[in-house]
Amino acid sequence: MSKRARLGGANSETCLTQKPEEPVALSQLEDCLSKIGYELVMDYTILGRTGLKVSVAGLGCGGPSRLGLRQKKSEKEAVALVRLAIDLGVNFFDTAEWYGTEPIVGAAIAETPRDRLVISTKKTLPPMDHPDPGGEVSKSVEGSLKRLRTDYIDIYHAHGVYPGEYPYVKERLLPAFERMRQQGKIRSVGITERFPADPTHQILLQALQDDCWDVIMTGFNLLNPCARKTLFRLTQKQRVGVLNMYAVRRGLSQPVLLKAICADLVKKGVAAAESLNPDDPLDFVVRDGGATTVSEAAYRFCRHEPGVHVVLTGTGNPDHLRANVEAIMKPALPEPVLRRLADIFGNVDWISGN
Ligand SMILES: NC(=O)c1ccc[n+]([C@@H]2O[C@H](COP(=O)([O-])OP(=O)(O)OC[C@H]3O[C@@H](n4cnc5c(N)ncnc54)[C@H](OP(=O)(O)O)[C@@H]3O)[C@@H](O)[C@H]2O)c1
């Protein structure tokens, strides 16, 4: 059986001793540890008012990868990926009826004691002129329970709500969510935004005016950190659980797209030309941030943001999953790097990185 060590992370301690005059890079330390049979341990936190103990890294089963199904990986590979996440200490899984990955999650978690896991899934909004949206919610909950092979859902969300749809969600869907909660079929209620269409979080700001949502899912990343100025102040005050999507997405995992996004910021005069290398705009984050890749730095940026409870990572690639969980467990980016990022992107509130 492997031994366990704790490294980095906002609330964690390093349990190896080292002489101060002999600094060891974290990556070297990790290599040494893995050679002698140690593995990284996950950090857990409490998801706001839900009281649920959740891993700070959560597996996103949607996004551009859908556990690899979008890249034509097999269901068997997708099930193995979810099981790998469990082995890495991840206990938070986010899926949705829309993604088609509920059966994969259901198959993967069947052997794990249910109370060790936190399952989040979502209801696609029925059309606003639907004669019985509440009935649709009941049907969907039953379907999700069956596909997930469980008898309760920890967090049930209204999925991808556009600005303008909120009154409908609150008046026609939320009462049905509450009925499902009373029946013990769901435990907490959540709402998720459409980050590309709503990059300033109007729907979630509206939802937080009502004290009825336990959890929100929001886009937040180093290209558009505007949630910190508005949303996270409210969620912390109200003890609402925060799930972070779009930490990396396409913009921070595809160099060509990142170059285009940054070139546009320079063209618009938002960023000074000399602040971003046109060929490798976030080279300073990797170089001065002690990161191996831009995606590592991007996950670390989100993980250490006050107010964020779970950083979701969506992938179909086991190596990416291992790297991303490790990234989320690493320390915050150094202050000078964070200041430089804030100078460049601190006022950006229109990019999603999709
Ligand atoms: N409105 C909503 O409710 C909503 C909307 C979007 C997302 N979500 C949820 O949030 C989760 C996270 O979604 P996201 O798209 O924002 O995830 P993300 O983790 O920010 O980005 C996922 C993308 O990054 C790539 N990637 C991940 N790790 C990488 C690495 N180490 N190196 C290079 N590329 C890497 C993935 O491709 P590979 O497969 O190749 O790794 C995938 O294309 C979703 O799965 C879903 O559960 C919810």
Structural description of this entry:
The chain is built from twelve helices and twelve strands. It has helices at 26-35, 75-87, 102-109, 133-148, 166-182, 202-207, 231-238, 255-267, 283-289, 294-303, 318-328, 335-345, and strands at residues 3-5, 38-40, 44-46, 53-55, 57-60, 92-94, 118-124, 153-161, 186-193, 215-219, 241-245, 310-314. It folds into two domains: 1-41, no CATH class; 43-345, NADP-dependent oxidoreductase domain (TIM Barrel), CATH 3.20.20.100. It has an eight-stranded parallel beta barrel with strand order 5-6-7-8-9-10-11-12, surrounded by five helices. The chain has a two-stranded parallel sheet with strand order 1-2. A two-stranded antiparallel sheet has the order 3-4. Residues 1-23 have low confidence and may be disordered. It has 354 residues and is of the alpha/beta class. α4 (133-148) packs across α5 (166-182). α2 (75-87) links the parallel β5 (57-60) and β6. The N and C termini lie far apart (41 Å). The longest helix is centred in the middle third of the chain and has 17 residues, at 166-182. It binds NADP nicotinamide-adenine-dinucleotide phosphate. The site of NADP nicotinamide-adenine-dinucleotide phosphate (NAP) has 29 residues, from β8, β12 and α11.
